[in-house]
Queue: 4 jobs
Job 1
Amino acid sequence: MPRHLDLAIWPRRETFEFFRKFDKPYFNVSTQLDVTNLVAMRGRPQFTAFLAYHYLALRVANEMESFRYRLHSGQVIIHDVIHGASTILLPNETIAFAYFDYHENFDAFAVEAGRIINEVRSGDGAFNPRDDQDAVIHFTTLPWISFTSFSHARNWGREDSVPKIAFGKFVNENGRVRLPVSVEVHHALMDGLHVGRFLTKLEEAMLKPAAYLE
């Protein structure tokens, strides 16, 4: 069950109060991560790079309390576990959303998430966003673009504090494979330090994927 963060003793209380009143309280960091060892695992049962980097991003996010913070009526709640929500390209070139649970075991995650994504792709194409759920990370993938910056659509009328992560097109450079990654978060809930730690841990996992996926 979610629990409330005690704002009275939170060292970031003043920072929280300052940024939560902004019209645009979000900041975005875009970078490229080394995924050479991750893509080298292609051919492994249940493995696709798409499922693997979503799994690793969710795993790292679940290990970091700040990525489980959400705003609720001026307070901060902490979810015990957060899951995945990703845009999926349909055969008719529209998008739909797939919602999949986080499992610590990669094979369990890959089987369930893969099944859900396939169901969405082969379904009726209904556009059914779940606006009432925030125990998620919002993902999107642009496999056609090696982007260097990114910006997400936002509804200014809602207390939206869900982190948003975008993945881009693989880049081959000097014998290494790199993946553009964008992380967008609510500044009232975390700072550049937290995003930096997230990206560092994510790249460490991608450089030693067997330790996480096997």
Job 2
Amino acid sequence: MGTPITIKELAAWLAEQNWSSFAQSLARAYTRWGRLSEKQEAAARSMHAKCMARNAAREASKSATPPDVGFYCTSDGTFYRVQSNKAKTNVYAKELIARQVGDRPYWKYVGRTPFSNLGSDAKLTREQAATFGHTHGHCLICTRELSDEESVMRGVGPVCWSKQGWG
């Protein structure tokens, strides 16, 4: 980690946090009394540590090489769809949310967060898509209900099957 931040440095950091009235009040308390109570200092150090960790995670996700556009399945079984923005200048991810079997799943925006987990080894396979379709009764790609006999058998809808190059 590095050297621990001194109480004086912590108070200066708190004073800069214009997003938090609590941080501002702790900075004023330090300025007025020259110290913080044990609980106040613990809260301030916790706030500082969380902010530093969040900033480090943001920087790591910025530097992570974005994966190719497509569908992915991580080792824990989470499905992601990586797609380009409308201007085709950046990519972002959506996570598949499948609440209960029979309910229509949906893709939820998650930004760049999962990029570090989405290497070429996590590319979605035909078998993974088919297993999802057989289990949930919906196409993993477009989330539509599988209704015709061939789609139910494959576990993926006909249009998605051909677009993925599986046909």
Job 3
Amino acid sequence: MMKRLVIILFFVTSGLLGFFLFNNYQAKIKTREFPEKKITTTKNKTKKTNITSSSIFVPYWSLNEQISKLKNYDNLIYFGIAPSRQGINKQEAGYNGIEMFLSFVPLGKKKLLTLRMINDNINTFILENEDIQKKIIKETLEIIEQNKFDGIVLDLEITDLLNKDIPIQINNFVQQFYSETNKNYRSFFITIYGDAFFRRRPFDLPFLAENSDGILIMAYDFHKSRGEPGPNFPFDSDPAFAEATTGKLKYQYNFKSMLKDFSKDVPKEKLTVVFGMFGYNWLVDEKKRPIRQAEALSLNEINNKFIDKCEFINCVVKRDKISKETEINYVVSAPTPDEQNIYRIDYHIVWFEDEESVKIKTDYLKEQGIDKIAFWAFGYF
């Protein structure tokens, strides 16, 4: 009995000792082979990039400009050909200027052809007619092939915001156009208004991004020629202005908001931001309300008329800290009195984009990881 008890105690003691030694050994192995790692957290930041591609639109009416400047750009976008209710209009100036444009293109530069769909009535007709869509696509691709263009830019401008069928019609047209263009091994891009989100334009951005090689954001013309005076496309808004006045922001929408909105629906690598190198000259009343539609002026015209030397009365030129663009105020007085012996005084306001405001916006693009820019237009600056 005693002998059996001793044997049992021996095995129990040996088991406990073995268990202890095994766990101690495992702990040493774990410590040696898998040391505890210190966990660190970092904020998810967008990697700053450089501009890798610059493009410029070359309108058919600017083909007599100094062509040596074209070598400064990677892509030359000819603006362009236009459709009619029967197909591509081969009688108008844009189509007839293709040969001259091609003669200006430096070696090694990519060249794209714009389809200018800027007439509301014709656009509506085309979007409602599948047969004419097929004909326009076919004829456009034939022109692309004949003239060795590298791709197409579809400039489809729509002002009708109420027709619920338009987004679907646009999608169908674009999908067909993109598919046929890719079969011909060419690129297909689409221009979209910079204010597409602010004014709820009828574009299905996720679908259009998927059915194109890229989206060109027209980051200009936010303040319309028929509307109130203001920047071409303000860089930022001013909450302090809202607090000090009526509660409204000085600029209801801006460049930063535009990029945020587009980046939600379009991959950044598919985005190109187009800067408009021009401005508007508004005739206004004493309260700065527009009296008639503003006159469009190229940056060259603005520099010659106001910046290099301004000969108008009370000519004040100032850069706005919020929009980053420049505003000019000046007065024109009639040389002779009217029938009531009153001298008329005209008040004018000019707003415009220039190289300095573009640099600020381009630096912001790089911070957001967007690396492609373009300019409207050749001959304007």
Job 4
Amino acid sequence: MKSTVIPALLILFANAVGPVQAQSPVPVAGTDYIEIPNGSPLAPAEGVVIVEEFFNYICPGCNAFEPVFAAWAAKLPPYAKLVHVPATFRADFVPYGKAYYAAEAHGLVEKTHRAVYEAIHTTRKLPAEGDRPDEARIAEFYAGYGVDEAEFLRTMQSFGVQVKLRRATEHMQRSKAQSTPSVVINGRYLVRGTTYADTLRIASYLIEKEHAG
């Protein structure tokens, strides 16, 4: 990237994640982010930079990251698109991965995304880390948003959802992400921030890097 682009990028960081010190260094490959060989998004889109968040509702770190990430994502430029990718590398992650894709199939993600975090980590209406997984209880929760409980459970257990979960898991492995939450830009860069703000500063830089080509 030409050096003349850097000042504009630092202005973008300030707008995206709050105050940034004037001497904030430009993110460095291998330190602030990892380049993914032959990487691509799970669902590429022409002319759009895909921002993927690998997450799971049961993950305490994801719950803490969610409000900060959501505020940042709400200010993404029109050439960037957010995609949530549920992680299922632990057995207790699987039911919530199923729930995310079932909610997506029923058009409920926008209504329920934050609510699921709250039901797990705040009100304890849903099984949390260390609790016994309960898909029926999860379906009952989603029924409160207008979907038939039995139909939602069938969707969670459907072949289509199983395929999506398998593809998401394989994509996470290819992307070199080993924990949640993790942010990947356009399938090509795994962000390595030291704090949430730092993660989003680096992500903003990489979005502009990809958009600039």
